[in-house]
TrEMBL record:
It holds the Pfam family WS_DGAT_cat. This is diacylglycerol O-acyltransferase. Residues 8-277 form the O-acyltransferase WSD1-like N-terminal domain. GO terms for molecular function: diacylglycerol O-acyltransferase activity. Its EC number is 2.3.1.20. Keywords: Acyltransferase, Glycerol metabolism, Lipid biosynthesis, Lipid metabolism, Transferase. It comes from Crenobacter intestini. Pathway: Lipid metabolism; Glycerolipid metabolism; triacylglycerol biosynthesis. It catalyses: an acyl-CoA + a 1,2-diacyl-sn-glycerol = a triacyl-sn-glycerol + CoA. The lineage of its organism: Bacteria, Pseudomonadati, Pseudomonadota, Betaproteobacteria, Neisseriales. It is an enzyme of class 2 (transferase). GO terms for biological process: glycerol metabolic process; triglyceride biosynthetic process. InterPro entries: Acyl_transf_WS/DGAT, CAT-like_dom_sf, O-acyltransferase_WSD1-like, O-acyltransferase_WSD1_C, O-acyltransferase_WSD1_N. Belongs to the long-chain O-acyltransferase family.
């Protein structure tokens, strides 16, 4: 890599998408048991994060695009800060602090990332991470953050930090070892979770480095024109209080973790994936929230844009290499079993869809368009959705950072256009949780949604405990039996 490097077309598109109501930054919150060793944390950042040039570079306008330029005045203390929460420093105060940060642009005169280490009354410290999407997608950034983690509190980060590597060091043997150790298992889990078919995944590898080749490849295997036409002609989803003109004030909330083995066990009985279970629970929580507000729910369909990993195995570089699929959440279906089976059917259809690589090609094309045209075209597509939703399977063993145990991680990707809701489902260490980031104008109380997520799952758990398993495939029959029982009990 030279001292100055052109920003790719895809990453240029992300740089241009910032607007006051929706900033293109990935926001993460990591809750720890106990306190982090600040000196050890800085050493870990130097060794693992700053080995990547992007975290030491500025994005500077150049012609019609941008160039990555080394920040000659880089100072880690500009990016890692201590913060004090007001009041009792509890969960509400932490959520408010995260929401405030999510609405503040990153300093364009410094590399586009920062961390805030805060003391809480929740039994330990929290580390809030903000990174601009132009640096990398969430999948790559999770890989970077995982590379900072240890398997024990003692860890192995005590050695002296090596000098910052040259730009070409990203391709050396150490990075290959880092990929094999940390990223490969995570990447494979994400690919499996996304359900990419072998045909789609294999075909994608040939044009990974050149997103526009996606269209050339797809032209040989499917009707790309029809796929693009479907995206362009996609009707708006149902009008709800979740849609509207967003403001610049955000709200953040997350649930308490639930046991992942329970989710897996219920899913096995019902013949659905963990992914299906969690997405259905999210749809149920959104439905209950609308109903509690007195809104109509019958027939409501909410469209969520879901990022899909399109990285080749072994690709540990930063940058953006993902596509998007549009998932219709059956919020209007009251019967929890019917809702679950509808999610399964729709996810099965998306697993064989070419939406993800086509959308990556479109994003690369957007980065070559004038900014005004890019904004208008992207808004047209983004505004057909209500939310951006991620579902990431994290490591299933406890991890440590700078001597402190990671208790609960949460991450949100940005919302574009007028989308006012981000939904994050993340599993870690045998537990799973949901996190929401919303616009205050549209959803001022996201805690009222995340509180219903667990209840939506418990509805399915209760059905598995109450009903004969061989009858659960017929959601309508189960509903009739339960209705009859309710009627009898009321006599």
């Amino acid at each position: 890599m030279s001292a100055q490097e052109p920003v790719s077309h895809v990453d240029t598109a992300w740089l241009r998408m910032d607007r006051p109501c929706n900033l293109m930054q990935i926001v993460g919150v990591m809750l720890f048991d106990g306190a982090l060793d600040i000196g050890r944390l800085k050493q870990t950042i130097r060794v693992h994060m700053l080995a990547h040039d992007r975290f030491r570079q500025l994005a500077r306008p150049h012609g019609t695009g941008y160039r990555w330029v080394e920040d000659r005045d880089f100072d880690l203390d500009h990016h890692l800060r201590r913060a004090v929460l007001p009041g009792d420093a509890g969960k509400a105060a932490l959520q408010a602090f995260v929401a405030d940060l999510a609405a503040v642009p990153l300093n364009p005169h410094r590399p586009l990332w920062e961390m805030h280490l805060v003391d809480t009354s929740l039994g330990g410290q929290a580390l809030i991470v903000r990174i601009h999407h132009a640096i990398a997608d969430g999948i790559a950034l999770v890989g970077v953050l995982l590379s900072m983690m240890d398997n024990t509190a003692e860890g192995g980060q005590g050695e002296e930090a090596p000098p910052l590597p040259a730009a070409s060091a990203m391709e050396d043997a150490d990075d290959a070892h880092w990929f094999d150790k940390v990223w490969a298992p995570v990447g494979q889990a994400l690919v499996t979770s996304a359900g990419l078919t072998a045909r789609l995944w294999g075909g994608y590898l040939g044009f990974l480095m050149q997103p526009m080749k996606a269209l050339d490849y797809l032209g040989t295997g499917c009707d790309v024109t029809a796929e693009l036409a479907r995206l362009a002609a996609m009707p708006d989803d149902s009008p709800t209080r979740f849609k509207g003109e967003p403001g610049s004030v955000k709200r953040v909330a997350w649930s308490e973790p639930i046991a992942l083995p329970e989710v897996k066990a219920v899913g096995k009985v019902l013949g659905v994936s963990v992914n299906d279970m969690l997405l259905s629970a999210a749809a149920g929580a959104l439905r209950e929230y609308l109903a509690a507000k007195g809104d109509a729910t019958d027939g409501v369909e909410l469209r969520a844009l879901v990022p899909v990993n399109l990285r080749a195995p072994g690709d540990a570089r930063l940058g953006n290499r993902f596509g998007l699929v549009a998932l219709e959440l059956p919020v209007g279906v009251e019967n929890p079993l019917a809702r679950l089976y509808a999610v399964r059917e729709r996810m099965d259809a998306l697993k064989h869809s070419y939406q993800a690589p086509v959308s990556l090609g479109i994003l690369g094309a957007f980065g070559m368009l004038p900014k005004l045209v890019q904004t208008q075209v992207f808004d047209l597509l983004a505004n057909k959705a209500t939310a951006v939703m991620t579902n990431v399977p994290g490591p299933q063993q406890a991890l440590y950072l700078a001597g402190a145990k990671l208790r609960q991680p949460l991450f949100w990707v940005p919302q574009s256009g007028k989308i006012g809701m981000g939904v994050s489902i993340l599993s870690y260490d045998g537990k799973v949780q949901i996190g929401l980031i919303t616009d205050k104008r549209l959803v001022p109380d996201p805690d009222a949604i995340v509180g219903r997520f667990t209840r939506a799952f418990e509805q399915l758990l209760l059905l598995v405990l109450m009903e004969p398993w061989d009858t659960l495939a017929d959601a309508a029959a189960v509903e009739r039996r339960l209705s009859a029982l309710v009627a009898q009990s009321g006599r």
